[in-house]
Amino acid sequence: MMPATGTSPLVRARRLLIVGLAGMLLGIALFWGVTTITTPHRTTPLYDPPVLAGQQIPGYCSGGVYARLGESIVLTSSPHCGGEGVVIAGQGVVGPEAQDPTCAYAGHTCHASDMNYVVVNADRIPWGHLNVIDLGVGGYRVLGADAKALACADIAIGDPVEIDGRNDYRTGTVEWKGENLVSPTYDGSYFPCMVHSPLQVGGGDSGSVVLVRGIPAGVTSRSFGGSLGFTPLAEGLAELGLTLCTTPDCGLAPPAALAH
Question: Which of 47, 145, 190, 237 lies 20 to 30 Å (CA to CA) from residue 104?
């Protein structure tokens, strides 16, 4: 007997299944394509050892900028991540915090900036890149030989702000700046200059460098309801006796085996 004309229910079911699977695959492909297009991706290489200025330090908070202390290379950070003498495995040892010798506010300590540093282990110094700041998907920023960290007076309301501390590149603007007296029940600090931006921050951002107008300007320090509070970089460097690295090797000779 010849088969009846038309398509059997089984064949129709198979065709519908094939069409459905094709639709699902197309949807997945479209979703993947949109995600690939809309999710920012890093386009800069990672050095070995990596540049941690601007990035989270493994086992710690975040790095600010590379600086020189005598013949040592240090990476600035924030003291509430760890006190002097703390050893950060594989990275270095935490140095002192920026602090005035006296304070006019009883029961408080006065600080030019909420800042300390990590003395970087010799094998973790990214020679040839010490004047570089890593903003992740925001790219590397290379400081010129004449670069200077900004002081409080150099920062104006409305200035553009950038950070990347937790490998999360964010931008905002300066909203206000002024004195900040912290309750003794918290840490009793007094900062003559605290700058605020509505840019969102979270755990791990502390210590990260803040760029203002593309220039190193601050230290990620406080959260005001989840938004950024930072203290000025220039004053902190001066109080700690640090010199900002503005050349690839910060004026030092790298080990002969690493010379470039």
Answer: 237
CB 175 within 8 A of CB 186: no
Residues 152 and 90: their CA atoms lie apart, in Å, by: 34
DSSP class of residue 97? Answer: P
Q: What is the SS3 assignment for 211?
A: strand
Residue 243's nearest CA partner among 32, 72, 56 is: 72
Burial class (CB in 10 A: 0-12, 13-18, 19+), 253: exposed
pLDDT of residue 260: 56
DSSP 8-state symbol, 44: S
Beta bridge partners of 222: 229
Residue in 141, 111, 118 with CA at minimum distance from that of residue 233: 111
Give the pLDDT of residue 191: 97
Residue 116 CB-density burial (10 A; 0-12 exposed, 13-18 middle, 19+ buried): buried
Structural domains of the chain, with CATH: 66-246 (2.40.10.10)
Q: Edge-to-edge, what's the strand order for the sheet holding 66-69?
A: 87-88, 92-94, 116-120, 72-77, 66-69, 243-244
With H, G, I as helix, E, B as strand and everything else as coil, classify residue 247: coil
Do residues 74 and 118 lie in contact, with contact meaning Cβ atoms separated by under 8 Å? yes
Contacts of residue 107, defined as CB under 8 A and 6 or more positions apart, other chains included, come to 184, 188
Give the other-Cβ count within 10 Å of 155's Cβ: 23
Q: What are the average pLDDT values for consecutive 10-residue runs of the chain, which has 260 residues?
A: 41 42 37 47 89 94 97 96 93 97 95 97 97 97 98 98 94 97 90 97 95 98 96 98 98 77
Could you write out the DSSP letters of every residue in 151-174? PGGG--TT-EEEE-TTT--EEEE-
